[in-house]
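Two proteins, back to back. First:
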Amino acid sequence: MAEVIAVIALLFVLFVALGVFATVKVVGAAKRSADKHITQARRTVEDHTLKAKALGRPGPAGEVAQLRLTLRTSMRATQEALEALAVEDGSVKESLALFQRLSAHGHELDAELRRLESEPDRATLAARLPDLRERTERIAHSADSLRWAARDRARRFADDDLDSLSTQIDMEAGALRHWQTAESESSPTASSAPSARAASEPARAAEAPERPAPPPWPEAPATEPGTAPEQAWPDTPRTRQAEEPTRPAISPAAPRPTYPWQKKPRPESTT
């Protein structure tokens, strides 16, 4: 009885631990999803705010907002592209590591641009704009180079795979249509056969010996006037039968020969 209670208690503890683990996992996933949505919403709000500042503020302040918007857009697009391609291609992970180093410079520049948005000294801000513009262009250009190189690599692999697949499909299609290959191979032979036969006929005719001309038909002998002409070819059986004399159908039987060893019949006694 105590063993059964211990087993039931152990199962209860296992179920409770499993429930707590599942709850923690669900809560963590929900929290990460909420943080992701909050971050995306914050980024969207900041992007729209920067667009409004770039369009609504003339002068150095508006240009600073435009530089910051350009930097953020380029860095975000490159990060999303590299992270998506790194899952399929392991070599892109090296590019992702380089981008992380580039992101450190990008975050530093973005923080500096954010501070300069509220700078009241317009002259100082205008003096620093050339350096800020150059740094933004360099970082954005590096990020764009990584992004487009990774995309070109993925497209090249896709093109190579498509070429290989097309070749295999063409070979399979040719194997499925094997009768067309057999017909194409046999048709030149069949078409060349009559021409070869026609070409060989004159050669055989030239090589064949000349046959002698057939002898002329025998001429009928000359006959005197008033007499019936005689036949020049052999007589037929009917003609020979008509010319022969009539013979009896059955010949008379010849007398039987007598031999000396045959005994003569004795006369019957009259007594």
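And the second protein:
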Amino acid sequence: MTDERTRRGVLLAAGATAALAGCLGGGDDGEDTTADDGRDTDTGDGSSADWQSVTLMDATADEEFSIAETDQPVVLHTFATWCSTCRRQQGSLADAYDRNGDDVTFVDVTIDENDDPDDLRSHAEENGFGWRFAVAPAEMTRGLVDQFGQRVAVAPQSPVILACPDGSTTELDKGVSASEIESALDENCR
């Protein structure tokens, strides 16, 4: 019998490790939480927002980018192309994008290891989505799980996260509407 490790299994272990570390204490270990651009990436809960610095490839424009390099608020949605809950959430994202796309960067990152850039490009085109789509590298998914918990890596949970230009983040409730996204942007990032 071989010991096959799946991405999901690794993420579950990483989430359990992070939860245990939080229970056992930790706090400030002297780690520098300042990003290259001077932003403080310390989230205040013992984890850092390194996931914002991970380089992503926009499957729709074939361009590299990172959340940290974006000088606008970012609406980040983790999803999978097969997920019907995710598609419903993307409907709200589409409404918010139509009204705010010039002032806010919208990013959908798949956390499904079976989705590839071609799948994302097709998904965006078929649904008329005009924002960025990328495959979340493992280090980004681990960072998101460390900061927000395991549900961020479960597509049907379809979480939406706001990342403000100062590096601060806010997780929104499941099934958030376009107006709720806009209100959260106003309250947290603008």
